[in-house]
């Protein structure tokens, strides 16, 4: 068919490479087919399946015996049954090493993060004991190190502090924290059960990078209290109030604290740098925090430094997690806050947990099931909330250490939990003299890795709009608040998506000389227009959000008024183009390439019908043929046009083609016939 | 090139129609080009222009003299300057006839609708006097009959009644109504100024049909109070409370009222039916309401029927609109409610006004500018709120009468306003004995046309999902509340759009025998797969909302685990397909047709890169080539892939093609070379 188009375009004298007679094929026109009929129920079923079960979780059950099905079912719910039976001593050796390593990190971090959430330090240790055990049974990731994390701790602390002061009413604050954790877990598990896991996809990469960097800076700024030894520190989180608090209290700065804090911070950053350069030396950065805690505690104890301006943690209780279900509040004046806190911390910690799980699973080439992971993390938090734990998830930094330390299965979490248990039972008095500044240094070192400058640069290079979204998240978190910065970035991302929908791309196609290929004339400078034809490609679903933009019914073509809408504007442009006026080639056919229109709704169908009507009317006025030609509609669009189009005007074979090339070659010849008979 | 593909596929022995040697073209491969470089600033400018100025309003100013520009500018702001100078006696004759006709409709409807909004009846007449005059100066529609409308009246009345009782505190209620009108106008005008007119596009056809039908039923049910003569009627709007109120007060029913109401209702419905059948007899239904008012008033006056259970309007004030700017509240406890009411009634009345304007402009082949109309309607309401008018817009029923009565310009609105003015000045005492039942009958007749069964059936036929949206709007309005029903329907529509985005369509393409065309194998049963190739077409922008769905990085191909995501599932399907196993044609190339991917973001770019990496890894494991081939990316996608792809692995000429046909024919030959050298 190429030869045909070629020959007919020959009069335009564009640079042709070939010219040869393949005419006999060119006239073969292929029919546009509709997909096989399905009932609405079948379609609905298919759509629901595609939405909620894209992973087809029951696939493995097909064709199995009943007993096998039960076994597979149990294994599906409790992945430990899958790998447990094959567990052996070699695996245990690796897991013990990695378990002890992450425990040495989890203990100081647990204490630090609990303080970040304005909770008693011991709650951080409780949260490193029960949740890892629950996750070991339910979780499908082999590398996830479970426990409290910095951003969720920060979020929970700052949100609850809006209504309750942790200093004045510590018991109520603790109760609200446990209740929020309960709701966060419930919400996470429900997302998994209802297979709504795709909700976390709405946190795009750009949003997350901006958010994490902002949160890291907010968290680091909070540590200035401990690192500078300030006693009267602001209760707010924003950059401005924190910096003003720091510089208005310069007389509270303690040089002993600053000196000691600086030393430990440098030590921790150097060890972190070493481990980043040589992943084999993971134990350098993994052991450093515990070593810092031990050294600083001994130092304080030896020199009675607590009397010289160094603030210490103070007395901690001893013993395992007390039950806390009687502390959960399900009514009262703070319910709204608790639900909101649960929702937001739940989503954020879920995002971190799933992302971390996926990252390491990809490295080791196994899989984690998003919805199942959500259930595991959710159940873990619900159980946690009844055993004095606050929100936990898979922590990025500790999981990386876990992975590097050679963790083979979730047993490393069990080893860690046992280590924490021993600490809780016997070693708590040792932390009495641990200085707060070393905890601050540990947090700063942990969160500094969340500021990902190379990733930000990559986003800037690829997509400026995404970069703006990232900046919004970043500055929103720093200057407004953690949760509002996040909401802002998500809102902008979704708004962009909706805007893309309301302003779909419409491009004019031209023929690439020597072929029957039609491409965007803006992108392919070679592509030439076909006289008498306006070939448009719409690249979005046509629906209520954009049909008005594409077509406005009330434009007056004849007058020289402002033509206002996309398609009609293209038509006017065509008519005003000098070349066309010179060549007297008035517009005969508007060809609409529907290949990229993936869906259509009733508004979209009306749009196509109206466009056809308008063109016909215009054709009558200009006493020429002006017809709407549709090319290559996908199955769904074809079906809906058929149903809506009682008279089948739109889908007659002479205005419906499989390719633009066939449409042009077929119509070009018919046009010649008409115009010659006119003359 | 067709011949080539044909020949190579020959081994499959599918029904071929042709087989002939056009091989020399087939090997000509066309380059994928990138669009000409533009700076980010240019792109941003373009994008903003496309979003906010798709209609290019400054187009007409180009190349004009300064004086001409000023004149055009004034004419743009005040369309009356455009048509005013050409006004003549013939036009005036038509406008007087149509103006008097709509006045005879506007007076009884104005009184009725004001009662629907729980406002004094005279406010309805005030609102039919000032706003039409303002619109005549600013508006660009020639047919719009401006005044109070049923749905906006209902909405304003029911929303304000949530906080203030019109019976107990009528002055405050009136003040809130004026203030809401002010904010509605401000909001409408801002939408126009900020060129955000596309916001009203989010009310899809399905939503509007369901909403209007539900509102019509709610409005009609409210008229049962007047038509049955019930004195203790519920204050609620829902179907359930209204029906229970009607049947719990049967002893209040007045047979005189019912009989008389029934007679007038039948009369009005019959006249409406006549005018609908014969549009020439428009005056039958147009004059009927005023005639009913006159006849029923005379009847009541003559027989002293007000003493026999027939309730009447009662004494009305006389005189023109008093100023009301001192009644606008800009602070106080009801501000939230007033803002919300203004926003919702503003959007709804704007939608009606614009839709009506567009409909009649299309019939007469002139244009109305959406954003300009919004400014006109907004200014009209702001002015109205300072002159004792409540919310007004272009009414559908009256505009239809206006059009049929031969209105030529907005002068018919001026004639109507003058008639209303005369009524306000001299005729108000005559309405003292007008029975409420006739107002009820007028409202029912007016709103019954809003229930559009044929349109609902059409939606059912074309798109089941839109039908569900329509039902949600309908039942939401009837059973929950007017504004919540509307919000529900809009929410569902947007949710569907977002869902379409998160679950983009991915289809497998096959070769249509005898051509180089590749199409959806599900839609085109003829299309045959090419052995060794998996050809996929993605039909949506690839972005953060769907890149996780399309590709999950951590699937294990080698094990028999559940493969979980869309593209990797297709690959697995390919490998498990019996035919492929039998033919030992293991997968060599995954061809991704990107023609329908209209945009991509950083997440999308990462998706493509990851997919390539995964395929390469898999290829190494299976010791075969597994390469990702991209076909026909649009300009923006091409650009972003280039920027992100430092090493240009993705865009090397051997994995980037202009058409699927060229990709397959080129790779097929290279594959043969490799496999023969393997053997």
TrEMBL record, chains A, B:
The domain of life is Eukaryota
One example of the protein's molecular function in GO is: secondary active sulfate transmembrane transporter activity
Question: What residue stretches are annotated with the STAS domain?
Answer: 523-667
Q: Which residues form the signal peptide?
A: none
Give TM regions.
171-194, 206-233, 253-270, 282-303, 343-363, 375-397, 409-430, 437-455, 467-495
- Does Transmembrane count among this protein's keywords? yes
GO biological process: any one? transmembrane transport
Q: Which CDD domains match?
A: STAS_SulP_like_sulfate_transporter (cd07042)
Q: How does it sit in the membrane?
A: Multi-pass membrane protein
Subcellular location(s): the record lists: Membrane
- Pfam families named in the record: STAS, Sulfate_transp
Q: Name one GO cellular component term.
A: plasma membrane
Q: Which NCBIfam families match?
A: sulP
Per its UniProt record, what PANTHER family does this chain match? SULFATE TRANSPORTER
Protein name per Swiss-Prot or TrEMBL: STAS domain-containing protein
Protein's organism: Lactuca sativa (Garden lettuce)
């Amino acid at each position: 068919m190429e030869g045909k188009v070629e020959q007919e375009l020959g009069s335009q004298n564009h640079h042709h490479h070939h010219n040869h007679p393949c005419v006999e094929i060119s006239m073969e026109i292929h029919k546009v087919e509709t997909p096989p009929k399905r009932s609405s129920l079948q379609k609905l079923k298919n759509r629901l399946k595609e939405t909620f079960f894209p992973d087809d979780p029951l696939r493995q059950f097909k064709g199995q015996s009943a007993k096998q099905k039960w076994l597979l079912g149990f294994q599906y719910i409790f992945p430990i049954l899958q790998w447990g039976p094959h567990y052996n001593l070699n695996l245990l050796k690796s897991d013990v090493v990695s378990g002890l390593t992450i425990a040495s990190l989890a203990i100081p971090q647990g204490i630090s993060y609990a303080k970040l959430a304005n909770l008693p330090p011991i709650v951080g240790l409780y949260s490193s004991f029960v949740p890892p055990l629950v996750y070991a049974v339910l979780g499908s990731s082999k590398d996830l190190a479970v426990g409290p994390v910095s951003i969720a701790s920060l979020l929970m602390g700052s949100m609850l502090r809006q209504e309750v002061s942790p200093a004045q009413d510590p018991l109520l604050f603790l109760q609200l924290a446990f209740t929020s954790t309960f709701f966060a877990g419930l919400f996470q598990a429900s997302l998994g059960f209802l297979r709504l896991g795709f909700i976390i996809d709405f946190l795009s990469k750009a949003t997350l990078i901006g958010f994490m960097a902002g949160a890291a800076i907010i968290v680091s700024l909070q540590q200035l209290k401990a690192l500078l030894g300030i006693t009267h520190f602001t209760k707010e989180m924003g950059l401005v109030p924190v910096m003003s608090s720091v510089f208005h209290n310069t007389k509270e700065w303690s040089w002993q604290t600053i000196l000691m804090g600086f030393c430990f911070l440098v030590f921790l950053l150097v060890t972190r740098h070493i481990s980043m350069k040589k992943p084999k030396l993971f134990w350098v950065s993994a052991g450093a925090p515990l070593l810092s805690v031990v050294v600083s505690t001994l130092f304080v104890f030896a020199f009675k430094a607590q009397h010289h301006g160094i603030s210490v943690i103070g007395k901690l209780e001893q013993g395992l997690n007390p039950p806390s279900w009687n502390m959960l509040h399900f009514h009262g004046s703070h319910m709204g806050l608790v639900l909101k806190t649960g929702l937001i911390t739940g989503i954020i910690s879920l995002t971190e947990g799933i992302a971390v799980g996926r990252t390491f699973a990809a490295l080791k080439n196994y899989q984690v099931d998003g919805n199942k992971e959500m259930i595991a993390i959710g159940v873990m938090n619900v159980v946690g909330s009844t055993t004095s734990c606050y929100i936990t998830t898979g922590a990025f930094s500790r999981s990386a250490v876990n992975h590097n330390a050679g963790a083979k299965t979730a047993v490393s979490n069990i080893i860690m939990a046992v280590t924490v248990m021993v600490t809780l039972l016997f070693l708590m008095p040792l932390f009495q003299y641990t200085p707060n500044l070393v905890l601050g240094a540990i947090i700063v070192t942990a969160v500094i890795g969340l500021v990902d400058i190379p990733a930000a640069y990559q986003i800037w290079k690829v997509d400026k709009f995404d970069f703006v979204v990232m900046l919004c998240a970043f500055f929103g978190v720093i200057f407004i608040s953690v949760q509002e910065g996040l909401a802002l970035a998500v809102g902008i991302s979704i708004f962009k998506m909706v805007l893309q929908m309301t302003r779909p791309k419409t491009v004019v196609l031209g023929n690439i000389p020597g072929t029957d290929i039609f491409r965007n004339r803006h992108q392919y400078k070679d592509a030439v227009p076909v006289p008498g034809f306006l070939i448009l490609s719409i690249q979005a679903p046509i629906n209520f959000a954009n049909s008005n933009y594409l077509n406005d019914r009330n434009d007056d073509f004849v007058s020289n008024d402002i033509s206002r809408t996309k398609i009609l504007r293209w038509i006017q442009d065509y008519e005003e183009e000098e070349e066309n006026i010179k060549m007297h080639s008035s517009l005969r056919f508007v060809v609409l390439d529907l290949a990229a229109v993936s869906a259509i709704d009733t508004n979209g169908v009306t749009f196509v019908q109206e466009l056809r009507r308008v063109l016909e009317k215009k054709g009558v006025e200009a006493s020429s043929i002006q017809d709407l030609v549709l090319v290559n509609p996908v199955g769904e669009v074809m079906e809906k046009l058929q149903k809506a189009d009682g008279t089948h005007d739109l889908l007659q074979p002479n205005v419906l083609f499989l390719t633009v090339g066939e449409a042009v070659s077929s119509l070009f010849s018919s046009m010649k016939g008409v115009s010659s008979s006119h003359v």
